[in-house]
Design a protein that fits this description.
By secondary structure, the chain is of the alpha/beta class. The chain contains 17 helices and 18 strands. The strands form three sheets. The protein has a six-stranded mixed β-sheet. Strand 16, helix 15 and strand 17 form a beta-alpha-beta unit. Helix 10 runs parallel beside helix 11, helix 13 crosses helix 14 and helix 15 crosses helix 16. It is globular.
Length: 594
């Protein structure tokens, strides 16, 4: 425990008035004396003997405490160069110090010891972590990937080598996402420097100076040359090797403190580990560590579900739907708009959706069977359980945001288009369909595309053309060539193809928006698109997390994964993982073995 600050006077020099009772204590003592009932002579003698023994013990203990405190205070004053000058103590305190009365031994406890220890205890409570603080050296690609990464390291410190600032300056020009992130990172650094004023940057800048309370560490810049020696096989002029040299120098300078390099470059981390340096990937952008942990949107009920919950189930019918209120351990596993199903041989099946969770009980609503020919949507019937779940979400006007994931050929685009055409042309629920996708090539870029915005997006919308051909043929029947042409023209007039590059600032009113290949979007791009929704708009995000073409995205950091994880449980959103392909036997087999 740290020693208390030195008082203005030593305990031996305090005046006798300092040992008197405070008025509050005098009043309490008088009250106690008044309320004590009279005792007999023998009782009074025993009471006096006990009081005398207690006073003697108290005096002895107090004398020892005073001796220890006085010795510590004298040692503190003697060790201080300016001991001759009294140290000012603030006069205003939260509450007055409570002094003890003097006793026959004349030894008392200094009155200022207890109040001066209180701030040290409160400072200990505010400390976030008891472990050692690390120092993270950030590579340039971390700042270009996430400009807010400076505030993602909690109580630890951050060090930026000078070469990182040079590379950041070189990447700030242009209209790409990397250039935009570089400019934002530079503005963040400028704001931190301005918030501290004329402060020596070698002492570090507090990261919470701009209101980022989650970051309690400091930001350090390389303000002086650092001495390091790398193997001769590493060229000294390369930026990556200079950063490795800075990490090596900091490790020796701050030993035994742990210095860690954070980089998105795999080869950079490999070289760092080969040199014996600690290196990590930037993990904060990952929503999930394992893609198998992603919310699937459905849950299979156990085989003994009805035998366990059958006695406590309430059921009623409203319209065409049956409702069940159930309880039990399964409630803790469910979320709003999650689908549950019960399939067992010899027993009736149950397919329902969670519509309400309250007081350790859930309400299940049975689903509409879109696999039946009488419930076809624009001539399309669902072929499996998950497709029926997805169609119930797509056709529900109370669900504003739907995410569909699954392998190739599971029917994501076809069902979204069929549901959109039905609600735009037949039910007039939305005014038009807006379709967009991330323009990320599988192979080499084919170069400049001439034409208008919609014509430029044409090559990217081959999936739309294929599905529209199927939908128009199914709806037209035997109307002939002219009938199919009229149907195609009508459908095309209600479908607009837009580029994501021009979505900023737009607002969609009563639109049915389809975002295809959403697995190639970053979380920031996903947020930009979803926030375009105005009143009456429904957004459908579709993608296959196994087919990510963006170089720096993974299943855990994809914008589609980010949206599924953040929207689960919201009453106006739903998600379904489509597990079974329905395109062809060839496509299904290829998805499994290739």
């Amino acid at each position: 425990m740290p020693l208390p600050p030195a008082p203005t006077k030593r305990a031996a020099l305090l005046s006798p008035e300092a040992y008197r009772l405070t008025p509050h204590q005098d009043e309490a003592q008088a009250t106690a004396d008044t309320e004590t009932p009279p005792a007999s002579g023998a009782a009074r003698k025993r009471s006096k003997a006990k009081a005398k023994a207690k006073a003697t013990a108290t005096a002895t203990a107090t004398a020892k405490a005073t001796s220890v405190a006085s010795t510590a205070l004298v040692g503190t004053i003697a060790a201080t160069p300016a001991a001759a000058t009294p140290i000012p103590v603030p006069q205003a305190r939260s509450r007055p110090a409570q002094h003890k009365p003097a006793n026959d031994g004349g030894a008392v406890e200094p009155s200022n010891v207890t109040p001066l220890r209180a701030p040290a205890a409160s400072a200990t409570r505010k400390r976030r972590s008891t472990g050692p603080k690390k120092m993270f050296v950030l590579d340039t690609n971390v700042l270009l990937h996430d400009p807010t990464s400076l505030f993602r390291f909690e109580e630890h410190d951050i060090f930026l080598p000078m070469i990182v600032l040079e590379e950041l300056d070189a990447h700030k020009k242009g209209m790409t996402e990397v250039a935009r992130n570089g400019r934002q990172a530079s503005r963040t650094l400028d704001t931190l420097a301005a918030a501290h004023g004329a402060v020596d940057m070698a002492h570090g800048l507090r990261l919470d100076a701009t209101g980022q309370r989650a970051a309690t560490g400091s930001l350090f810049f390389q303000t002086a040359p650092l001495s390091y020696q790398l193997p001769s096989s590493l060229p000294q002029g390369k930026a990556d090797n200079q950063i490795l040299g800075v990490v090596e120098a900091l490790r020796k300078l701050h030993a035994p403190r742990e210095v860690v390099l954070v980089s998105k470059d795999i080869n950079m981390r490999v070289k760092a580990r080969a040199l014996g340096l600690a290196a990590e990937d930037y993990q904060n952008d990952k929503t999930l560590e394992d893609g198998d942990l992603l919310y699937s949107g459905s849950l299979a009920l156990s085989a003994d579900f009805w035998s366990k919950a059958g006695k406590n189930v309430e059921s009623w019918q409203s319209g065409v739907h049956m409702y069940y209120r159930i309880g039990g351990p399964v409630v803790s596993q469910l979320m709003i708009n999650q689908f549950v199903y019960f399939e067992a041989p010899g027993e009736p099946s149950l397919y329902a959706r969670v519509t309400e969770i309250r007081d350790k009980a859930v309400v299940l609503e049975t689903l509409k069977d879109y696999g039946s020919s009488k419930n076809a949507v624009w001539g399309v019937n669902t072929r499996n359980r998950e497709q029926n779940f997805a169609m119930n979400l797509l056709m529900d006007p109370d669900v504003d945001f739907v995410t569909l994931t699954g392998t190739a050929g599971t029917g994501k685009t076809l069902m979204a288009l069929a549901a959109g055409l039905t609600q735009v042309l037949d039910e007039r629920r939305y005014t038009e369909i807006i379709m967009t996708r991330a323009t990320v090539s599988v192979g080499e870029d084919i170069g400049f595309l001439p034409g208008t915005e919609e014509e430029k997006m044409g090559p990217w919308m081959g999936a739309l053309d294929d599905n529209l051909e199927f939908l128009a043929k199914g709806d037209g029947g035997n109307a002939g060539e002219w009938g199919r042409a009229a149907t195609n023209e009508l459908i095309r007039s209600r479908i607009k193809i837009k580029s994501m590059n021009f979505m900023r600032g737009r607002t969609f009113l009563n639109k049915y928006v389809i975002i295809d290949e959403a697995q190639n979007l970053t979380p920031k791009q996903m947020k930009t698109l979803i926030t375009r929704a105005g009143p009456g708009t429904k957004i459908i995000c579709m993608g296959n997390l196994a087919q990510i073409d963006t170089p720096y995205l993974t299943e855990g950091s994809s914008g589609l994964t980010y949206a599924v994880d953040r929207f689960k449980g919201w009453p106006h959103s739903g998600h379904i993982l489509l597990a079974r392909g329905e395109r062809s036997r060839l496509a299904d087999f290829a998805s499994e073995v290739l």
